[in-house]
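Quick one: examine this chain and its backbone structure tokens and tell me how the chain folds. Here goes:
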Amino acid sequence: MASVGAARDADSRGGQILTPAELSAFETRYRLRHRFARAANDAGSTCLPAVAEGRVEELEPRDGLRMVGSDLIIHRTYAAVAQPEAPAHASVIVLLQGTAELECAGELLPLRGGGAALVVHPGGGALSALHPAGQHIRAVNVSLLEGSPLPEPTLAARFGARFRCPTPGLWPVPLPRGLAAGLDEWLRGGRRAALAELEAMGLALQLLAHALPMAAPMEQSGARPVRERALLERVRQRLETRPGESHTLDGLAALACMSPSALREKFAQAYGCSVFTYLRERRLTLARRLLEEGQTVQAAAETAGYTHPSNFATAFRARFGIPPRAVRRMRHIA
């Protein structure tokens, strides 16, 4: 069990000052690197300003199972990016306070206080987390390395099966209030070392067990016939590859060789969301990528299938928490 940093509440003084140099220790342990927004006083300076200030708590209650708690004031926008040699792992990230943005293999997921996400990273693909400056972040991250032993056989078997699938994934996870309260209490500390380790183990296993079904909604839907799975996947692929086109429920139902009502029900069972929620997510993700590549807001909106700029701006802000024009500013992160 390892512990790093000094206790710090939002209004307390002191705590650990994290500069790019201090963060290098985390880069070695977790096989990641950091990118920092350029500060006005960076030019010609060899002493870069503080990135964050506060407390980071690291526990390893079992081999390959890590639990990291962060209670930090973010002074400088930064992104944590997995290195190509980062091992295969699954992580559940819980954001108790603040905002962040996760990206895995081109999929973007913004998180706000009270939100959580499951990331399955087979290794070698793109994975990053963006932390905007000027906020207080309180977060818990539970990570399980591929092949790590777990005391619960069913949970171990299901994670093993998910790791055998080479496709990365990023899913939002609804967090029960009781589990969120337990994580919040753990992060605040105050337990003796032995109790803290036992509590961490219990919370970590609860969190993994709760999040895992998000990664395989099709598997959870029971013995769905092979042909039906293939037809539903045909619809999903159409939405995935042609999000900018005009789609109707009747047209997609014809593609799936089923009635509109059957498609509505079966698609939600298989993929965990409605047909048009999935389409909206694909459109907004495409628009976000186009904006990051330098396209204008109007061009990105039209390519993604939005005919009214105001509707696009409203949907984009609701999804990502920022207006479309703000994406250009994020391109300045080095």
